[in-house]
Amino acid sequence: MLTRLITAGLVVLMAVLTRIEPRKLNIEKSRKVYVIIWIAMTVFCFGLHLVLVLSALGRDVHVSVPVPVAVGVLFLTIENYMGNVRSNFFVGVKTPWTLSSDLSWNKTHRLGGWLFVLLGLLMISTGSIGYPTLLKTLIPISIVGVVLVTFVYS
Q: With 70 as the cut, is the pLDDT of residue 1 above it?
């Protein structure tokens, strides 16, 4: 039930954000990417819901395998398009520097894109081998590292 509410909330939030975005022209220029991100996140939430329901029904679904793989695929999908997102207040790396400079926005998103692609591949590979201990340590450290490097670079 909770995953359905989260998915519905995400769909509504993404619809509302386009209407309240101060840089509407940039969102319009990035509409295709925005829609792809919207769909990818909704499909991810649906897949997560499916895995949780199957697990709750007693099916032999080990959540530690499909969830990290799905998150990795989500990262790859989103970051494949992030380089095409124009400066805005809701999607992308939003720091004072990226929001005030198109050059900083573009360079930061190029670097962040590559780092999140590597992170996505790492999540897919570690999720595929199914070592929960490795996932519990390596993935959070990697995510924090990517976020910090991207933030400092901006």
A: no
